[in-house]
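User: Just a sanity check before I run the rest of the batch. Below are the structure tokens for the first item. I only need the designed sequence back.
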């Protein structure tokens, strides 16, 4: 449940400690997805609430304005493939492209909750499998990561 590393770090940890892959992946997925509904429902509300506060107003306004402008550009490019784009974003196993960031973006873009969560879950599962395959050595680059 740590931001930025999320399921990627859990996969690396489980592989490094020779934990069984399927239970480890299931626990990592659950821990990664647990905060998602809260982030989706409260992130936009918090940013809107904080816009006029003295200490956090500028940063909240920045995130809302920046998120909405980037979202409009994304909507124009992705069109109907917006949820697939969310899936791909979350599925890339790099720090900062995980479930928390993806669902935060979908919250700011005011996307459908159910479709966003399904795309995010699918992306997290894909990222988890990729990380497991890399760290277990099934995919050739995994030996470079583990050593």
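Assistant: Here's the designed sequence for the first item:
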């Amino acid at each position: 449940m740590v931001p930025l590393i999320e399921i990627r770090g859990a996969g690396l940890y489980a592989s490094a400690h020779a934990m069984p892959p399927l239970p480890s992946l299931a626990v990592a997925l659950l821990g990664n997805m647990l905060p998602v509904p809260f982030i989706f429902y409260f992130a936009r509300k918090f940013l809107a609430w904080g816009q006029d506060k003295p200490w956090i107003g500028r940063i909240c306004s920045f995130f809302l304005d920046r998120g909405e402008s980037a979202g409009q550009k994304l909507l124009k490019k992705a069109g109907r493939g917006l949820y697939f784009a969310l899936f791909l974003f979350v599925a890339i196993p790099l720090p900062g492209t995980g479930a928390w960031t993806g669902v935060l973006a979908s919250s700011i873009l005011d996307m459908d909750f159910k479709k966003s969560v399904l795309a995010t879950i699918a992306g997290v599962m894909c990222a988890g499998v990729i990380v497991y395959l890399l760290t277990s050595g099934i995919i050739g680059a995994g030996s470079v990561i583990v050593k």
